[in-house]
Amino acid sequence: MELKYEKKDVYSTLSEKELKKVDEYAKQYMEFINVAKTEYLCVEQAISMLEANGFCSLDQKQALKAGDKVYFINKEKSLFATVIGKESLKEGLRIIGAHIDSPRLDLKPFPLVERDQIALFKTQYYGGIKKYQWLSIPLAMHGVVYNEKGEKIVISIGEDPKDPCFTIADLLPHLAKDQLKTEASKFINPEKMSVIVGNMKDKEAKENPVKANILKLLYEKYGIKEIDFARSEISFVPAFKARYVGLDSSLIGGYGQDDRVCSYATLRALIELKKVPEKTCIALIVDKEEIGSIGNTSMNSRIFDFFILQLLQKTGEEKVSELEVYYHSKMLSADVTAGVNPDYEEVHDIQNASMIGSGVSIEKYGGSGGKYNSSDANAKYVAEVMNLFDKYHVHYQLGTLGKVEMGGGGTIAYILANKGVEVIDCGTAVLAMHSTFELTSKFDVYMTYQAYSAFFQG
Ligand code: MN
Ligand code: MN
Asked: 41 CA distance to ligand 1 centroid (A)?
């Protein structure tokens, strides 16, 4: 009898047929993250995936029965999708929850300035970034603007190779002597992260002719004026596409894999359910995780309770309290974790860390220091999830985020746990998380999808 536990890599255990499936899935996943670069675009993609697979909007259904597939869009930036199960909702739900917001640069309300004959957009970063990674790389501009009539204008520039892109100009090393002496956390001043938007003059303009020319171009193309930026949500994200990384193409590099790798897997697992599940299955695709899950598009919003109340009403169980539903529900908090980076082994407790390529990662707890702010899964539930994955031959590993007191992090797990749901973190290990080019193993990416499918099937 083998008493020792040994971590194994996924690749060595897969058949030729399975390896093909990994590449097929990886290709489709990369296509998804190439298009879905903001939460708005993710929701758009999700709707088309759901509708192509027989889901309709919840408000189109007066009543719900087993096998019905519906979704609920919350302010264009988050969504809940469900397949109604055979059992009553009060027997509990099977929930998988992921987030679709990623670190990026947002425009300020009055972003456009002209300095030294260059027109610039002033930005404010969103989420936890290492600022230097965003300098001197091609950026794309995505977002929505509302004009004075309340009409929505969609902007998307920089993804098509025929489009121009944008960039923030870093300081040349020749003149960076003083800058390089400053502390690493301070050496990029966030007020100096201005995106370059142009250098040509409007010949008729009396002052700030470059800014005037940009305003003219924006008006010609989109019909927007300077004031309209105050009622917009425009973000700059890396303009490059996801690609395989390594001579063996074993890794996937791309922007926004935290947490679109889990969001995509969650959606795929839900839409591909072949049989009507016993328990009602729910995919949560939420916004604002990167800034603390605050606001009405975040997991903390009571809009999720509102969604559950609607499900109860439409399944004829309006007398059941949503608290009873939560008490019997089980969830995977589908978010990424840190994989061991061979150049920075010292931040990980290797035996308790997730290895790139060793399968989907289960994390019993996160938080920081003495498990502060962590949702610590109950041992009984950990056992249940491990047994389920064993039953479905899902290749998984167990890890923690990093050494104790090295830092820390959280997910949406605690929010559902606070409602009474059994929750555990389960997602893909990432290298260079929150960078402009995050890395995952295509085998872990595939196993994440397999894990979520197993969880929904139960
Ligand atoms: Mn995340
Ligand atoms: Mn994150």
From this structure: 17
**216 and 118, same structural domain?**
yes
Q: Residue 408: what pLDDT? A: 87
The ligand minimizing its distance to the Cα of 261 is 1
61-68 LR contacts (CB < 8 Å, sep 24+): 61/314, 62/314, 63/314, 63/315, 63/316, 64/311, 64/314, 64/315, 65/315, 66/276, 67/276
pLDDT tens track for 82-127: 999 999 999 999 999 999 999 999 999 999 999 999 999 999 999 9
Q: Does 78 share its domain with 125?
A: no
CA of 335 to the centre of ligand 1 (A): 5
Helix residue ranges, H only, 167-226: 209-222
Identify the pLDDT of residue 184. Answer: 87
Say which DSSP state 166 is in. B
Residue 233: which of 72, 127, 104 has the closest Cα?
Answer: 104
Judgement on whether residues 112 and 97 belong to the same structural domain of the protein:
no
Would residue 247 count as lying in a domain? no
- pLDDT confidence of residue 411: 95
State which of 184, 208, 238 marks the end of a domain: 238
- The 8-class DSSP code of residue 240 comes to P
Structure tokens at 455: 């969880």
* Confidence at residue 381, expressed as pLDDT on a 0 to 100 scale: 98
| Whether this model's pTM surpasses 0.90 | yes
Asked if residue 204 is part of any domain, the answer here is: yes
| Residue 296: domain span | 11-102+255-457
Which amino acid is located at 382 in the chain? V
Domain final residue pick, 238, 271, 287: 238
Give pLDDT < 70 ranges for the chain.
none
CATH number of domain containing 18: 3.40.630.10
**How far does residue 211's CA lie from ligand 1's centre (Å)?**
37
Domains identified in the chain, total number: 2
